Write the structure tokens for this entry.
Amino acid sequence: MHQHNNTPVTSTSSDIHCSGSEQHFSILNEYLTANSLDNMNLENLKLCLNSPSKIAMARMHCLGVDTSSLGLSLDAVETKEGTSPHNPCIHKTNDSSPTTKIMIIQGGLASSLVRLLYMANQEWKIHLPFPCHIDGFFFMKHKTPENIENTAKQQHNDGKNKTTNMMDALNIMHQVLLLLLQVCKLDPTLTEEMAKGCGMHSLLSNILRIDVYNILDELHDPSIASSRQEYETLEDALIAIQDLAAQLAHVDTTVGYPVKVSPFTLEELQARLPLVFTIVSPSGKRKECFMVHQVTERQSAQEDVGFVMWPSAVVLASWLLDQEDELWLVKSGGRKRVLEIGAGCGLTGMVAARMMMAGGGGGGGGDESEGGLAQVILTDFHRKVLMNIQRNISLNGLDDVAKVMHLDFYSHSGATQQRDGWKGTELSLLLQDHAFEAAAPVLDQDHHHDDHHHQMDNQPPVDLILAADTICKASDSVAVSDTIYHALVPGGEAIVVSADAQHRFGVDIFEKECRRNGLQVTSFNVADLCHGRLMPGSEDLDPCGIRQTSGYVDGMTLTMFRVVKPLL
């Protein structure tokens, strides 16, 4: 596994789920550096930014990150020497060839998209009655005799062309707002960068402050039959523009409107890009590439461990790539259902989902019948972690085979309670629960999670459980073993990878707790598996890239537990 952020990725993967054609990036280069909206087909740009993965690649591209090693072929942007006086936000890096330049856009993709809104505003303001320039933005000014006289002369000269030009400008504004609304719904990080870093809210406020009926009164007399239809058409267009601007202003409730402008530095923008992981199987026969967002907020409690990537996750992900036939391809009647517990950033579960998808595990429809969708379920208990997992699933195009659910280890009691299945809740239902959405995880005095603020439903048991670095204290070993007991079908297996007890307190009692529940368990030193290809050797040898994860220290020992629930 190789992890990358601001540096080029060292391996390629044809399986990354995003567009990588030269035409795709050529269109991006053309539209994002344009100085005018004239003759611009924004539908093409919408197609280039119509998925989380495409937006992520565009963000990387605009910040000078080499995406070609992800299997993407990029067209360099041809520029004149020096910074363009008509596009001062564009700066060039070193020559990539004698005739082409690799570009870095100051402010990144967010800056380019907000520029489109600014240009649409500029186009619109030309056709407004009483244009007024304040702080770089245009809006209505109160009527004065001088303004009324000037407007009368302009209307006399322009005639009906004034309405036509206004409608053309409104159509452009409408397209730009739809584009921005699309990308903001797909990428909350980009939304924040556009609003906080590039002043998008100021431009939206400009639109919302427009007095629609003042404009209409100046352009048309609604009492005249011949102009009544034009009046109503223009009225509808202006109101639609303001409706879209209001939606865009409030598309992300975590970004207050209006937010104070505070531009991000290039380094900050690059740090906000998703990490790129290239997972290579120990045999070297299979390679998968993933983009992974971590939760950017600072960890303030032990319950925040799912914010970042941990060593066992990348080791288990790499090991899985060579286990396809043994673990989940073959099952009487259909494919196996896979559950990842304590998923964190979701890398291990996404590897399983990618393998399931490659083997034909996905399908049409929304049910979960065998051979249908969502056969890999990624779970955690922290609200922000769950939302980040869902984001990563969408980012990697795995929505058809993977889904996110809430699961808390501490809500299971093991063999002392005779029932089949595990307690979990659909993420969509949780987000409808305002108490859950607003609450941070709460621990009682026994360190159990307080989940009484929402209803947990019994879920059917699964065939395979994956768990990586889920044990941080002794009570976790008890809770994880109890969860495995309830969540596995008889004959099912759990694969648990964890650092040793020196680094993960409580791991030393995990086998005992599994046997308490009547589970069969076998443990292995990860360094002894796959001819030693899962753990780093010399300082320069790091086959899985484990040194790049959080919490790894040289000399750390990892253990794999294979836990089986006996047949009845």
Summary: The radius of gyration is 28 Å. The first helix runs from residue 22 to 32.
